[in-house]
Design brief:
Helix content: 25-40%
Number of strands: 12
Strand content: 25-35%
Structural class: alpha+beta
Distance between the termini: 7 Å
Mean pLDDT: 81
Order of helices and strands: HEHHHHEEHEEEEHHEHEEHHEEH
Low-confidence stretches: 1-17
Number of helices: 12
Radius of gyration: 20 Å
Largest sheet: 12 strands, antiparallel
Number of domains: 2
Length: 307
């Protein structure tokens, strides 16, 4: 079921050539719960015009997976979706979907066993008591845990507050060229605990206590150009983050299985870590050929997953 929540996020977007930062849909913002500690989205109209999309979205494997998804949920994410925003409170996520159903005057259906039509305070829903899709209006769908969706409807009067202005402000720093973006408060996110003290990943929770916000921007115009920015508490914390990222990249190079080196070494070689006061910016890139190999590996894994 999880892959059917994630797949639409790989196919969405909206662009604004006159802006210098990503644009958050004003129709979706009032729906985001006040306790959200991370936001993200993918902009599709722009993505579908890229060389990356033309190269990766028309392979037989991807087409077969999308056809299967369309048959299962009742709509085609390649045609019917406009934009997706997701939000998490650190424990569970919600997916806010802007679609083209209103333009086509249709309502999606699903063939998934156990799903049925529900309603809450006049709003139609499709799903079961565990998970559902909430139809806010003809062009807006919210997907997530069913009780969480009911809470969104209850909070429409604004009585439970609004999303953090600081989180929104950090989202406004993400470049407009990003087709995929995210912003998060790392201290509020679930992270691995314990483990071998010699393992750098085991020290990740302690390291991130010095990071106030993380932002991620992926430009997929022609291949991948990524930028991860850590906004730290002070200069010392930023220096620790810089050293840790360099260390992780070095360990990753050493530990690469021989059969994966040709795929991953170019990505690791591209990593640049820049320190500027309390901010650490990490950049990395991959060409179209490398992304094609990643897609092949991903789709091979998806084909082995049970439905």
């Amino acid at each position: 079921m999880l892959r059917y929540l994630i797949l639409p996020l790989l196919l969405l977007g909206a662009c604004s050539s006159t802006r210098t930062s990503v644009m958050l849909d004003p129709a979706l913002l009032p729906l985001i719960p006040a306790d959200s500690v991370s936001l993200g989205g993918i902009r599709v109209d722009a993505l579908q015009k890229t060389e990356t999309w033309a190269r990766l979205a028309n392979t037989p494997q991807w087409t077969r997976l999308m056809d299967e998804f369309t048959k299962d949920v009742g709509f085609d994410p390649r045609k019917d979706l406009m934009e997706v925003l997701w939000a998490s409170n650190g424990k569970e996520s919600l997916y806010f979907i802007r679609n083209k159903f209103s333009q086509m005057n249709i309502e999606p259906t699903t063939r998934r066993e156990g799903f049925k039509r529900l309603a809450y305070k006049g709003y139609p829903m499709l799903g079961d008591e565990e998970f559902a899709a909430l139809f806010m209006n003809a062009s807006t769908i919210v997907a997530g845990r069913t009780q969480r969706l009911r809470e969104i409807i209850d909070a429409r009067d604004g009585s439970k507050g609004s999303i953090s202005k600081e989180l929104l402000a950090k989202a406004e720093t993400i470049p407009a060229v990003a087709h995929v973006w995210a912003v998060a408060v790392p201290s509020a996110l679930p992270l691995p605990k314990g483990g071998d003290s010699n393992n750098m990943l085991a020290n990740l929770p302690r390291l991130l206590t010095g990071v106030q916000y993380l932002t991620l921007a992926l430009d997929l115009s022609k291949g991948l150009n990524a930028q991860l920015v850590a906004h730290c508490n002070d200069d010392q914390a930023a220096k620790q983050v810089q050293n840790s990222i360099k260390g992780l990249a070095g360990f990753a190079r050493i530990g690469l299985p021989e059969k994966q080196k040709s795929d991953l070494l170019p990505l690791l070689d591209s990593i640049e870590v820049q320190l500027n006061g309390k901010t650490v910016t990490t950049k990395f890139a991959a060409d179209l050929a490398t992304l094609e190999r990643f897609q092949t590996i991903f789709l091979a894994g998806e084909s082995r997953r049970p439905n």
